[in-house]
Amino acid sequence: MKAPAPVSFGPGRGLALLEVLLSSFILATGLLAVLNMQTLAVGTAQTNGHLLQAEWLLHDMLERIKANPSGFGVALAAWPDGQSDARCESPTGCTTTELAAHDLAGWQRRLAERLPGGYGEIEPVTMAEFPLPAATYRVSVRWLGSGNNDGDAQLPASSGIVVL
């Protein structure tokens, strides 16, 4: 009986398996990088959407204050968060102070609806360089940002100054 021929491991044997393993690793690394970029893009798009809504609501309130300065001066002192009044939605209308309070309440409601944890602040400020005595207010919009998951979310802000 003849003995089996010895197995020879010449150059190149087993190299195909190593190439397959290496190319699988490279492909998996590339796919993970693409998935990471996609996740980052979705988060950035959501943050930009919130920022756009905040800026729109901020400028909406700045314009409302400029359109009704006397009403807002009184309404901010009496109702800082506003007060809804159905008469302001009707053709008979309401006073300028009631309209300002109604606008404040609607603004706060829209902030809470459109931004996660959204709220607004209107506070009087003094400007040292401003030559005339005028009512000056800082209007700020804040909302919960896309912070870390341990409950310590960041609070981005948009703000503007209006001088009446």
Order of helices and strands: HHHEEE
The oligomeric status of these chains comes to single chain
How far apart, in Å, are the first and last alpha carbons?
Answer: 111 Å
Question: How many domains?
Answer: 1
Count the beta strands: 3
Low-confidence runs: none
Average pLDDT rating? 83
Beta fraction: 5-15%
> Main sheet, how many strands, which sense, barrel?
3 strands, antiparallel
- Structural class estimated from helices and strands: alpha+beta
How helix-rich are the residues, as a percent range? 40-55%
**For the CA atoms, what is the radius of gyration?**
31 Å
Q: Looking across the biggest beta sheet, what order are the strands in?
A: 1-2-3
Short structural summary:
The protein has 164 residues and is α+β, with helices and mostly antiparallel strands. It is 50% helix and 12% strand. It has helices at 15-67, 69-78, 96-114, and strands at residues 119-124, 136-142, 157-163.
Task: List the topology elements.
Layout: H1 15-67, H2 69-78, H3 96-114, E1 119-124, E2 136-142, E3 157-163
Antiparallel strand pairs: 1-2, 2-3
Helix pairs in contact: 1-3, 2-3
